[in-house]
Design brief:
alpha/beta; elongated; 6 strands; 5-stranded mixed barrel; 3 helices; OB fold (Dihydrolipoamide Acetyltransferase, E2P); single chain
């Protein structure tokens, strides 16, 4: 049985333990997509079409996963590439590719933007340039 003097110490201990657990849960280290392995290899046109045809199924399959994409660059804006007119790829590092280049890269799928009608990827890294 606990004595009256031990109760404040027990409450302090439980509060600290709870705080440590909450802190560890909330402040997990960020994912490093560059070091993760590719889960799916897909052509840009096919993955875009899958989001247009069956958005719920595509979200379940691709959302927040590391995906390898192959496609043709149609526009460049600083570290962002537009691939096959409807896929926005945001790169972490500067890019030297040109419009018209075919490339293979990997990145994290963050979803389809209905307003801009584009599929978005972030933390992208170049795998190959053709």
């Amino acid at each position: 049985m606990l004595k009256k003097k031990q109760i404040p110490y027990l409450l302090l201990f439980l509060t600290l333990l709870g705080g440590i657990i909450v802190y560890a849960y909330l402040y997990k280290p960020h994912r490093d997509i560059e070091k993760e392995r590719v889960i799916f290899e897909v052509d840009a046109k096919k993955i875009i079409q899958s989001f247009l045809d069956e958005p719920e199924l595509a979200n379940d399959r691709y959302l927040n996963k590391t995906i390898g994409i192959t496609g043709t660059i149609t526009a460049i804006d600083q570290n962002n590439l537009i691939v096959d007119n409807r896929l926005l790829a945001r790169f972490k590092h500067s890019i030297t590719q040109k419009v018209g280049d075919t490339m293979r890269f990997k990145g994290r799928c963050i979803g389809y933007d209905d307003l801009l009608e584009e599929l978005r990827f972030d933390q992208c890294h170049l795998l190959e340039q053709h």
